[in-house]
Amino acid sequence: MKKLFLIVSVIGFSNFAFTASKKAPAPDSVQAFMVNSDEAVSIADNLNSTLIPKVNSEFSLKTEASLFREKIFHLENTKSMAEISQILRTISSMEGIEYYSTGDKKWETLYHKATFIDSPESKNPVEEGEVKEALSSDGKQLYALLEDNSLGTCVYQVSYFETENEIAMNFFLVEPIKLGPVKAVKPENLVINLVVLKENPQTSDNLTVYLNVRAKYVKISMIENRLNKSFERRIDSMYSWFEDKIKK
To answer: What are the residues facing 5 on neighbouring strands?
Structure first.
C-alpha cells in the first residue's frame, strides 16, 4: 500500500521560499501540503474546479513521477478575475523573487530573468504588452524563459485557461535542465500548475489558490535530494509572488 501524508498548517512554513518582501503567509492563510506517491487522491478533489482536472490531464508526464507535490492556499481578494488574469500574464514581475536557502542559510534571488520568448530555438524576448492586450488569456500558449538561480536557464511552454471564476497557468518544460554535465530533467518531465478560483463567487471575491508540481529526474541521490527541495521551493515562491501582486 502506498503511503499518503497530509499536513495542514494555519501558521505558514519556514523552510521554503517567499517573495522579496521576505514575509511568510499571513497567519490566517491555510496551507495544505500533500506527499502523494501515486496521485490517486488529491487535496483538490473537494474543490469545485473545472480547470484543475483539465490541466492535470492535458499536461501529464509520460512516465511515473519522481516527485509530486500539491498545495492549497486561501487568500483574501478584492480584484476582478480580469485583473488577476493580467497579473498572471505579467511574467516579468517574477524577476527578483527571493527564497531562503536552507543549505546556504541566506536569502537568494530565485529568478534573475523572467520573460516571454518567441521560440525555444531563438529565445528572442516578446513584449508583454502583446500578451496582455487580449481581454482573456483563455487558450493562449506561449514560451517563457526563467533564469533560475540554481537550475540555470529553464524554458517552458506556458498555457492559460479561463472560465468565469477560474484561471489556470501551466508551465511545461520544453528544454532539458542540466546540472553540470548531467541532464537532470528531460523535456516534458517537469510540469507546474497554478490555478486560481473564486471560493464562493456569489458572496465573496476571496480566492483559493492551488499549485502542484510533477517531475521526473535522474536517479542519482545527490541530484534527487537537491531537486526535491528546489521544486518544492518553486511552488512556494510562485504562490508568494502571486500573493504579493494580489495585495498591491
So the answer is: 35
pLDDT in tens, 186-231: 999 999 999 999 988 888 899 999 999 999 999 999 899 889 888 8
Q: What is the Cα–Cα distance from 213 to 184, expressed in whole angstroms?
A: 16
Average pLDDT estimate for 113-136: 89
Is 193 within 8 Å of 212 (Cβ atoms)?
yes
In DSSP notation, 51-98 reads HHHHHHHHT--SS--SEEEEEEEEE-----HHHHHHHHH-GGGGTT-E
The whole-model pTM stands at 0.84
CA 123, 128, 130, 136 dihedral sign is positive
Instruction: Classify residue 125 by its DSSP letter.
Output: B
Question: In the 8-state DSSP scheme, what is residue 26?
Answer: P
Summarize the confidence of residues 105-132 as an average pLDDT.
Answer: 92
Among 83, 108, 106, 109, which Cα is nearest to 94's?
Answer: 109
Cα gap 93→241, rounded to integer Å: 8
pLDDT tens string 142-158: 999 999 998 999 999 99
Name the residue with cell 464562493.
Answer: 200
